[in-house]
Structure formats: C-alpha cells, structure tokens
Amino acid sequence: MELTAFIIKAIIILVIFGLTLLIAMYSTYGERKVAGFIQDRLGPDRAGPWGLLQPLADAGKMFFKEDFIPAQANKWLFIAGPCLAMLTALMASAVIPFGSTLRYDGIEVAVQGVEANIGILYIFGVVSLGVYGIMVGGWASNNKFSLLGAIRAASQNISYEVAMGLSIVAILMMSESLSVGSIVAQQHGGNWNIWYQPLGFIIFLTCAFAECNRTPFDLPECETELVGGYHTEYSSMKLGFYLFAEYINMFISSAVVSALYFGGYNYPGMDWVYTQLTAAFGDIAGHNVATLLGTAVFFGKALFGVFFFMWVRWTLPRFRYDQLMNLGWKGLIPLAILNILITGIGVLFIQPSLTAFLK
Amino acid sequence: MNTNYLPSDFLPIIVQFVLAAAFIVVTMIVTHRIGPSRKSKAKDDPFECGIEVVGNARTPISVKYFLVAILFVLFDVEVIFMYPWAVNFKKLGMLGFIEMVLFMALLLAGFYYILRKGVLKWEE
Amino acid sequence: MNPTLSFFYFLSFLTILSAIMVVVSRSPIHSVLYLILTFFCLSGHYILLNAQFLAAVNIIVYAGAIMVLFLFVIMFLNMKEEEEKFRGNVTKIAAAIVGGTIFIILFGAYRKTQVGTYNPYEFKSQTGMVESLGMVLFRDYLLPFELASVLFLIAMVGAVMLGKREIGERHF
C-alpha cells in the first residue's frame, strides 16, 4: 500500500472512529427523546437548547463519579472487563464500507478501513469476542447478580451467534464473496438484498438485537430479577463503557444490516445523480461529491436502524429466559437452515428458468 | 473491486486498534484520577439488595449452560464449514448443493437428537 | 531489515511471550486470557502468510468459541484458590515425563522432515483466499469433509451423553 493511500485510509478511520463515538453519545440522548415521544412526555430538555448538551453533562457526571473497585473483586480483571467490551465494540467498524471510492492525486481509495477478502468473517469474529468483556467483568465483580447476568448474557450471545452465521451464509450464496465491499457493490441502485432475502433479514435482525442485549432480549440486565446484571458493581466510567459499548454495537449492527440487506451506500437513481454531479463539478470533484452523498445515505440508513432499535425497546416487553433460548435454538436455527435450502433451490432452479422465460 | 489481496491491506487495522486502545486507556486513567475515593466496610461488600452477604459468589451453576456452550462450539465449526461452500456455490453447482444437503442432513440429525433428549428444555 | 520481516519477529516474540505467560500465570483465568492473546498473534502470522480465511477461522473458532467454553468451565466450576496449592509431586513428575516425551517426539519429527521448497515463479499470492480453499475442499477433499460431519454428529451425541442429567437429578 502506498503512503498516500495509507494516510487517506488512516484519516478515514479517524473520522469514522470519531463519528461512531459521537453517534453513540447522541444515541443516549436520542433514546431518551424517543422514549419521551412514545410515552408522551418531553424527555431531557434542560441542558442546552432542546437538551442537546445532555450527553456532555452525562459524560461529565460519569467522569467525576468515584471509580470504585469492590474489595472482594479481582482488581485487574474487574478493570479489564469494560475495557474489553469497549475495545471489541470499537474494532468492528474497520471492514464496513461507508462509501464507494474517493479520488485523490490519481489514486482511488475506498471509504472503508480494510478491504479484506474475509470482511464478513472479521465482523463475525469481533462479535464473537464481545462475550469476553461481559463474562470477565461479571465474574470479576464477585457478586451473585453479576455472575448470573454474565452467564445469561454469555449463553444468549453464543446461542444467537449460530443463527446469525447461518443467515449470512444465504447472502454469500448469492454474492459469491465474503468481502463486504463487493457485497455492497453488487446491490447497485435499488437491487438490494432485502428483496431476495426477506427471511434471512428477519433472522439476522433478531440475532442483532440479541447480540446487542437489547430489549426484547435484555435479560442480562433485567432489573427486576438481577438488579443491574453483569454491571451491578460497576460505577463511574467503567459503567459508562458498558453502556457506551452497547450503543456503539447498536450503531455497528445497524450499519452491518444496512450494508448487507439495504444496499449500503446505494440508492435508487444514483447513476443519474452521478452523471449530473460529474457534469457539474468535473470528473474528480463530482465523483468525490457523489461518494460523500452515498456515505450520507449510508449513515441515514444506519441511523434509522438505531431509531428502530429504540422504537422496539419502548414497544415490546421482554422475553422470559426459556422463551429466549427456545427462540434461538428451536426457532431461528432451523429457519436459517431452511432459508439456505430455499436460497439454494432458488439460485439453482428458479433463477435460470426465470431468465429463460424472460428471454 | 480489489481482487489481489495482500497482507498489507490489514495495516489500517493497526491504526484503528491503536486509536481504540489509546481512547480506552486515557479515559480509564482520567476517570480514576478525577473521581473521589472513599472507602468503608459496608461499601466494600458485594451488593445484595442491602441484606447481609450470604456465602460466596463463586458458586457452581447449572450444567445446562455448559451443554449450550459445547453445542455452540460444534455448531460454530459447522457454520464455518459452510462459508467456503457458500462463496463457491454457483461454481460448484448441483453437485455442491447435494454435498451440502447431505452435510446439513447429518447436522439436523444431531440437532434432532439433542431436541429429543431435552437438552434445550429450560422450563422443567 | 524489511518491514515484513521485522513485523514477523515482533509478532513471534509476542506469541512466544504470551504462550509462556499461559504456562507461568497462577490464576487459570489469566492463563485463558493469555491463550486468547496467543491465538491473536497466530492469526497475525496467518495474515502475514496471506491465509486470510484461516486467520479469521482461527479467531472465530479458537478465540471466539473454544476459549469461551474454557472460560465457562473455569469460571463457573467453583475453583477455590486453596485447593489449587496442594499439587502432589507425583503430578509434577508425571507432567514432566509427558511433556518431555512430546518434546522429544516433536524434535525427532522435525529433524527427519524435509523442508518443502517452492518455486518463486509459480507462486500465487491468492492461494490462501476463501474461494480457492473452498474449491479444493469441495472437489478434492469431499470425503474427509463429509466424514467430518459424521464426527460432529458423534461429538454431539457424546456431549449430550456426558452432560445430560435425567429429570429429577440435581443440575450441578
């Protein structure tokens, strides 16, 4: 990789990193506003105009709280827990293509941290590591509620990971590539995967909710049974890290859903916009502006996904634990396998006959 | 798209890792420094809803969770086997599809056995 | 020194260091965490070899699944620290004999094996990608693949036989 390309990539990563943190911060505000709207109240409105400074106030409060470590806890593991949760959440965005390419100085660089052959598997791997933050933190607290919360969270996450992996397989059968960049590029215009994979989409979305420990799957921190779940003993910014990691995961999963099923940076009529822009601004500037427009569309889709997470949280009640496990193992896994079979039959038999018929 | 993948494609991950690690370490140190620190006997106890602490939190748990973890490992490996197949699905054609149906049939046989044995039954 | 080589040495140093820490550290939980670090370093080696699929599988299967199982067992199996201290000399001697034997076998095997050669003109950098791996696995190694699924079935049955408690028995 040339130095210029590397520097551009580094800047892209820096910007995405900053945006992720900003979005996660304002998701906390958004969540309270959405909750307020759904429950017919105002939500935060004191700090700044419309309460816009509320996340800053929350962060400041978190910083100035006592950084408390219980005497019976394993000190280093207790610190490592939230750090691991945060680290895995922050690493996941590397392979997501946030836009097509930027042209600069004769080279084309994709708006994506890493364009790897294994893109999807990278996300899958990082997601599977998310368990450690919760398990290590919950166990190190030396508290019964934390332990129960941690073990619930861990088995929930690993159960839904299987169905998630299986639902991705169906997409790969159509795209023939693991790279997220080419999966998105194949959904050019309005040719999105959601039209071909509605069942896979529902399975993936359900698993994304479970992996983020969001309602209706928020049993690990079910306050009526487990106080605060795995973060019962945490305070200060360590607690903040756990909450923050949840919001980052929400944003990342929405971004992954929109990249896999909703065409990422593609939108209907993008070719027309592209020709208009290149005609107006010239080849290089027009291309870059079109790319940035695509990136904005991508963020719009991802933010709608985050809103959807909140909408569901304030609408649906939570599952019982046996219902949760039954849904994961007995519901989603057979469904996902069925989806693979349907996709296989569709690609092998229906698609050729359909194209022959249309000719 | 890029078809010639090289190890150097992964260099930006180091940038991201360094950024994330630096953010985490700095935040942890800052919050540890500027917060107050007051110790007391009652505060050091594990939280049990205000009642005296009974026993130890290092208790053994139901064997079901282990079984779920073991089954997860097995299913995860099987799912991993499907990825190289799915990527080559159109090239392998009909024969590849039959191979995978056979593989999945055995997987589902094991799954059926697990269900019949009631391993995944939580509501007893 | 070229950057790839220096990166390789750094990664190897980290791998061996974390592997030693697995053996040396007192608490089993720390051992598991160091083992995860070791797997990450190994994945780094795979990436240097341009075997990207193997790198990802190594992380997903070993670091993401098997180590979770290890952590489950260690964390929730009621390991008391006092019980740890009493390790008889017999165990130590047995461990030394077993470890030493394995070392001798490996050493002998490495001395006998011939290092494979390669032709730099025919070298294809994309051999380690998932597409070529899939073609080889599902064309040339079909029988081992299908046998692997039988192995999984047996493993599932075995896990259930060992772990399942009948109704009425205590769960732990």
TrEMBL record, chain A:
HAMAP family: NDH1_NuoH
Family of the protein in this entry: Belongs to the complex I subunit 1 family.
GO molecular function: NADH dehydrogenase activity; oxidoreductase activity, acting on NAD(P)H, quinone or similar compound as acceptor; quinone binding
GO CC annotation terms, alphabetical: plasma membrane
SUBUNIT field: NDH-1 is composed of 14 different subunits. Subunits NuoA, H, J, K, L, M, N constitute the membrane sector of the complex.
A Pfam family per the record: NADHdh
Catalytic function, reaction form: a quinone + NADH + 5 H(+)(in) = a quinol + NAD(+) + 4 H(+)(out)
Cited function: NDH-1 shuttles electrons from NADH, via FMN and iron-sulfur (Fe-S) centers, to quinones in the respiratory chain. The immediate electron acceptor for the enzyme in this species is believed to be ubiquinone. Couples the redox reaction to proton translocation (for every two electrons transferred, four hydrogen ions are translocated across the cytoplasmic membrane), and thus conserves the redox energy in a proton gradient. This subunit may bind ubiquinone.
Protein's UniProt name: NADH-quinone oxidoreductase subunit H
Source organism of the structure: Arundinibacter roseus
Enzyme Commission designation: 7.1.1.-
Membrane topology qualifier: Multi-pass membrane protein
Protein keywords: Cell membrane, Membrane, NAD, Oxidoreductase, Quinone, Translocase, Transmembrane, Transmembrane helix, Ubiquinone
Automatic annotation (TrEMBL), chain B:
Membrane topology type: Multi-pass membrane protein
Predominant localisation class: membrane
Superkingdom as given in the UniProt entry: Bacteria
Record-linked Pfam families: Oxidored_q4 (PF00507)
Keywords noted in UniProt: Cell membrane, Membrane, NAD, Quinone, Translocase, Transmembrane, Transmembrane helix, Transport
Presence of the UniProt keyword Translocase in the record: yes
Subunit structure: NDH-1 is composed of 14 different subunits. Subunits NuoA, H, J, K, L, M, N constitute the membrane sector of the complex.
Protein name as it appears in the record: NADH-quinone oxidoreductase subunit A
Organism: Arundinibacter roseus
UniProtKB/TrEMBL annotation, chain C:
Gene Ontology cellular-component terms listed: plasma membrane
Record keywords: Cell membrane, Membrane, NAD, Quinone, Transmembrane, Transmembrane helix
Secretion signal, residue range per the UniProt entry: none
Intracellular or extracellular location(s): Cell membrane
EC number(s) on file: 7.1.1.-
Molecular function terms from GO: NADH dehydrogenase (ubiquinone) activity; quinone binding
Chief place where the protein resides: membrane
Enzyme class: translocase
Membrane-topology descriptor: Multi-pass membrane protein
Domain of life per record: Bacteria
Keyword Nuclease: no
Pfam families: Oxidored_q3
Catalytic activity: a quinone + NADH + 5 H(+)(in) = a quinol + NAD(+) + 4 H(+)(out)
Transmembrane segments: 6-24, 31-49, 55-77, 89-110, 141-162
Family of the protein in this entry: Belongs to the complex I subunit 6 family.
Function: NDH-1 shuttles electrons from NADH, via FMN and iron-sulfur (Fe-S) centers, to quinones in the respiratory chain. Couples the redox reaction to proton translocation (for every two electrons transferred, four hydrogen ions are translocated across the cytoplasmic membrane), and thus conserves the redox energy in a proton gradient.
Descriptive protein name: NADH-quinone oxidoreductase subunit J
Species of provenance: Arundinibacter roseus
